[in-house]
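Internal QA ticket QA-208
Title: Verify multi-chain structure generation after dependency bump
Assignee: T.L.

Test input:
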Amino acid sequence: MKKEYEIKAKDFVRAGKASIGVQSILKNIGFQQDIIRRICICAYESEMNVVMHGADGTLSLNVGDKEIVLEVKDCGKGIEDIEMALKEGYSTASEEHRDMGFGAGMGLPNIKKNSDNFEITSQKGNGTHLKMVFRVNGNRE
Amino acid sequence: MNNVEEKDNNYHYVRIDEKLCNGCVLCMKACPTQAIRVLDDGVAHIQGTCIECGNCIRACPRGAITSVTAGKDALKMSKYHIVPVTSALYAQFGEDVMPNDILLAMRKAFDFVYDQSYTQELFNVATGLYINEQRSKDDAHWPLISPMCPVVNRLIAFRFPSLLKHILPFATPLEIVCREGKKWLSKKYECNPEDIKVFSVTACPAQMMAFNETLSGEISRIDGAIGINEIYDLIKSDIHEVQEPDEHIVLNYLSGVGIGWAMSGGEVAGLDVGRHLAVSGIKTTIRYLQSMEMGLLKDIDYVELRACREGCIGGAFSVTDKYAAKNSLNKLIRIFGSEKRVNFSYAKKLYREGWFDTTRKLVPLSSKSSHLSIHEGIKRAEDIETLLKTLPRKECGVCGCPDCRTFAEDVVDGMTSIDKCIFMRH
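Actual output:
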């Protein structure tokens, strides 16, 4: 099944709604706790990246019984140096966002750690596209 | 009503009186787990997993909803009984009535009355020791969640099972008081600990359920709960009758620290170690649990979650308004002082000896789709989303379901039919 959520940039009041939607769908289907936890962490980190850095974007969820694919696209300013962005502790978050508790530079590294397959494409000025794949192992516990 | 025997996990204590219920949507809308439906017979029924939060009891304007307790008559069937109380009770009689007066007044109806505040302070010390111990471990689960609120425990077991391992694995002060009280009285009367019954006087409708969570036969379980509303008059009429304190009142050391526990923030106020948060109210609690499941709040050591707004004084069996109760407790805290009365090294010794070990057994509660395979689960979710797109999203509840999403789920599960929606009929 597929489900798409819109993400509004700079909207910190509604931020996190898409991830909560993903969380409740996966729970209702009955996936194992561990895969739900990993997907939720990735969904939240990438949703917050869009809210903080991007212009508006979308989060789409594609659930199959072999794998679950999460894609997050935005039309923001893009990432200049992807290799740097994947390093723990590296962050381009503003002072203001750091004050809100974001910008520890763990977002992308966390996504990489928690997904089974992770692709990132980004061009300066052309937005960012994240694709995260999670393999479904076995049935429910 | 007497109801103290063992129940399975799907048993619930909330009762809806069919004669008083007029089938309005208020309780159904108030339920945080979407467990209520108004069926064809025109009255509300509990159909899903009830977490005993008491929201429906508070929401019903007709007083049609109650929660089963052991009732005050339950005391008659036990030879010896002991009644643990918390400061939620002290908050009920106005700011000028002191805890001692209340406990003395209770002596007429109850054999032994046991104040929990000393145990609560010991619990604070042990929590601090545990936090420090866990910090050196790599596989610790942060933040730890307070095990105090039985509604929160059940909510986690039902909706957030991945967070069960975050719950502090300690016996609650109530469990400890049960265990120690039974040991002490059985020695005194030279009988089996099982012959001593423990009935907690409480503002909490979920406390009847708390004994389901402990292993059967263990002496740390309570034998039933009595609502504060059920014995309020009884206590009130006896307050200020001159009585001398005696050994039947177990009042170790009353402190402001223990008194604070009945209010939101009171438990963590007594915790000297780490960073904490205190959250109250079921909706906010759910939001925080969602965040924790997304891996947030890891920099916090301990989270005190209470289903009732303002904490236990906001419980559905509370007689006094929670804000008036809060005022009374704050005054008591000023009188009794906020310094700790427990001896740290004694608390540490008890901790090392396993005094805080629990027999509580929290297991994930099954959801509506747990009997399905992943493939069937995905199909079900697809059907629900497709149907949901055609529904009006007025969230009116006329169909007998609390909201359009739940209605879509029920239609797909074959529990109701699409023509129950008045918008789809036209």
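Spot checks passed. Confidence is low (pLDDT under 50) at residues 1-7 of chain B.
Status: verified.
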